[in-house]
UniProtKB/TrEMBL annotation:
It comes from Schizophyllum amplum. Residues 235-248 have a biased composition (Basic and acidic residues). Belongs to the class-II aminoacyl-tRNA synthetase family. Alax-L subfamily. Keywords: Metal-binding, Zinc. Residues 235-257 are annotated as: Disordered. This is Threonyl/alanyl tRNA synthetase SAD domain-containing protein. The keyword Signal does not apply. Residues 264-307 form the Threonyl/alanyl tRNA synthetase SAD domain. Signal peptide: none annotated. Its cofactor is Zn(2+). GO terms for biological process: tRNA aminoacylation. GO terms for molecular function: aminoacyl-tRNA ligase activity; ATP binding; metal ion binding; Ser-tRNA(Ala) deacylase activity. InterPro entries: Alanyl-tRNA_Editing_Enzymes, Thr/Ala-tRNA-synth_IIc_edit, Transl_B-barrel_sf, tRNA_SAD.
């Protein structure tokens, strides 16, 4: 993942603002700090924290849900096999999934050992760390390490989180501009798995001009380096009504109904946006160049997806698309800017070549049909003949059909008695190569009799109606062997 982006080294003290006179961050280390005012939410740039274990238990996987799997809002890493501990800490820098932002992954140093945190989830109002127990340790021994009151140092996968923060803060900026400049509410959004572009869903399509204007405006604010801060207060204070979100942007996701942390949290982009959210957000828009993919996908009449990229994922995307373009330019032996014109030429040439092949095939089919007719005249009576061809086209059967059609079109063939077998095999044959056979004639009974013999003696899979029969043969077609079976079938008519 690309990380060549300058960061402010630490979160400014003005980032986290408790706007209620009564809200306190629990200092008692026996108590777990609720989601909403966790260290990861107070200081998104803090990479490691010394804290204390509050409780731990062995994870009991829930029974597999019956029926179809529901659509998962946030992609979480799969839990590995083997025992998992659910660990509750006094405080944490590991973000539990929420607000459309996926879980952090990380580690907890406890009892002189680094324990892998594979997921972190909010249970009610608290962040539960899913800690992997290595094979060499029993779950009971692991539980002793995570006894209540034990010291623990928690840290997280910074690159994963930095990517998530870059895109989440960018989404707030993007949604705010869509709403205030174009009156387009964000219906939902997705922080997709790295490195795919993320998207917001809006209720209508957007023009190129609209997309460009939103992107320009966003990047003007990025250039200014607008500050971001967080305001928190109690969900329901005794002395007043529920905090009002007046002036706040309606968000795609409301507060989860099972959230019991009691904290109301609003993310503020200075002069641009106020949005209730639990995510970890960068302290400024600095270096969050926003790139909107210049097209939208209409999912339905009322939902359109607009894709966006920012931060390290944008750089990864540019690197990947450049590599794709450079690979195409290499194949076409041209410079990168010439690729579209060269591809257009190649496609055009291909169309012309396809047409020429079709014309030449038509002509060749006519010649083969004429040869068959000449043989017919020479035969004097009924013509029963087999012609085998070697042909590497994937449409070999269509070509055999073209020969039979050309034969039947000839005036000279009308009223005559004939049964003709055409077969075709590729030039390089193996046990899995496919050969095709076509039978046609003036007498339906003879054609079907030959078809039945091909099926019975050569294992050709096929069928037909009236005076036409065709099928496929898998394996190696040998002139003396398979051809001989056909000669026999024709001779027995
Ligand atoms: Zn958010």
């Amino acid at each position: 993942m690309a990380t060549a982006i300058l960061l402010s080294p630490s979160t400014p003290p003005s980032y986290h603002r408790i706007v209620s006179p009564t809200l306190q961050i629990p200092a008692d280390t026996n108590v777990s700090i609720p989601v909403g005012i966790l260290a990861c939410q107070r200081d998104p740039l803090l990479r490691s924290l010394d804290t204390t274990v509050v409780s731990a238990s062995v994870h009991q996987p829930p029974p597999a849900p019956a029926g179809k799997k529901g659509k998962k809002a946030v992609l979480a890493p799969e839990l590995p096999a083997g025992p998992i501990l659910e660990v509750l800490l006094h405080d944490t820098v590991i973000f539990p999934e929420g607000g459309g932002q996926p879980t952090d992954t990380g580690s907890i140093k406890a009892g002189e050992k680094d324990w892998q945190v594979v997921q972190c989830k909010r249970h009610g109002g608290h962040a539960i760390h899913y800690v992997r127990v290595p094979e060499s340790i029993t779950a009971d021994d692991a539980l002793t390490v995570f006894a209540p009151g034990s010291p623990a140092t928690v840290s997280f996968d910074w690159e994963r989180r930095y990517d998530h923060m870059s895109l989440h803060t960018s989404q707030h900026l993007l949604s705010a501009l869509l709403e205030t400049r174009l009156q387009l509410p964000t219906l939902s959004w997705s922080l997709t798995t790295y490195p795919s572009p993320c998207y917001v869903e809006v209720p209508r399509g957007m023009t190129q001009e609209e997309i460009a204007s939103i992107q320009n405006e966003a990047n003007r604010l990025v250039f200014e380096g607008r500050q971001v801060h967080v305001e928190v207060q109690e969900m329901q204070r005794k002395d007043e009504a529920k905090p009002s979100d007046e002036g706040a942007r309606a968000s795609g996701r409301g507060l989860p109904s099972d959230y019991t942390g009691g904290v109301h949290r609003v993310i503020v982009i200075d002069g641009v946006d106020r949005n209730p959210c639990c995510g970890t957000h960068l302290p400024s828009l600095h270096n969050l160049q926003l790139f909107l993919l210049p097209h939208t996908d209409a999912l339905s009449r009322s939902t359109t997806r607009l894709y966006f990229l920012a931060g390290p994922r944008l750089i990864a995307h540019l690197a990947a698309t450049h590599a794709h373009l450079a690979a195409a330019a290499g194949t076409l032996t041209c410079g990168l800017p010439e690729v579209p014109a060269r591809v257009a030429t190649v496609v055009d040439d291909r169309k012309r070549a396809d047409k020429r092949v079709a014309d030449a095939e038509g002509e060749l089919a006519g010649h083969i049909a004429a040869e068959l007719l000449a043989a017919h005249s020479a035969a004097g009576g009924a013509l029963r003949k087999h012609v085998h061809r070697t042909d590497d086209t994937p449409g070999a059967l269509a070509f055999l059909t073209a020969i039979s059609a050309a034969f039947e079109r000839q005036e000279a063939a009308k009223g005559k008695a004939y049964t003709i077998v055409l077969s075709s095999s590729p030039s390089a044959q193996s046990a899995s190569s496919v050969c095709v056979v076509s039978v046609f004639g003036s007498d339906e009974k003879e054609v079907q009799a030959v078809g039945a013999a091909l099926r019975a003696k050569l294992g050709v899979k096929g069928g037909g109606r009236g005076p036409k029969w065709s099928g496929k043969f898998t394996g190696v077609w040998k002139p003396g062997r398979e051809d001989g079976v056909i000669e026999e079938a024709l001779a027995s008519l």
